[in-house]
Design goal:
By secondary structure, the chain is mainly α. The chain is built from 2 helices and no strands. It is found in: Cytoplasm.
Length: 166
């Protein structure tokens, strides 16, 4: 898109230079025409030749005026194109800035989520260790309970046996 803008700028500068040359030629032709008219007034005996020259210069002057009008229309079109290009550049710049802001916001949000995930993982790891420790304690207590139960049954059985003997 940048290359397109540069190309359009070059075209605009070229058209401006052409316009200036045409204006200068038009002024020179107008000056020549004025001189010839003055010369015509002074040289009545060379009138047919002067009339022919004047007509040629007037024709050229008319063509130059038409070309100048055409150039003015082109200049107006180029100004419209310049304005359009400028608006497009501004729009592009605004869009680029909006996207940068959005990316920055999303990056910050991602960073916050990564921190939250790391915190949750750390807590989960801690809870897992706590659960393992509690499970080991319960396994030990269960083993102790089973040992005590079997001892109780043995003693109860002995007690019953002793009662029967007595």
């Amino acid at each position: 898109m940048e290359a397109g803008f540069s190309e359009m700028r070059n075209e605009l500068q070229s058209q401006d230079a052409l316009w200036r040359r045409i204006q200068l030629e038009c002024q020179q032709m107008h000056t020549e025409l004025q001189k010839i008219r003055e010369y015509k007034d002074m040289q009545e005996m060379h009138q047919p030749y002067c009339v022919q020259l004047i007509e040629q210069l007037e024709n050229k002057n008319t063509k130059l005026l038409l070309l100048a009008q055409s150039q003015e229309r082109q200049r107006e079109e180029l100004n419209e194109i310049r304005n359009h290009v400028y608006r497009e550049e501004q729009s592009h710049h605004s869009e680029k800035e909006r996207m940068k802001t959005e990316i920055s916001d999303l990056t910050e949000e991602l960073h916050q989520k990564e921190i939250a995930i790391a915190t949750i993982m750390e807590k989960a790891s801690l809870l897992e260790r706590q659960l393992k420790m509690e499970l080991e304690i319960k396994d030990k207590l269960l083993a102790k309970q089973q040992l005590l139960d079997s001892q109780y049954k043995v003693m109860s059985s002995e007690n019953t046996h002793l009662k029967e003997m007595v």
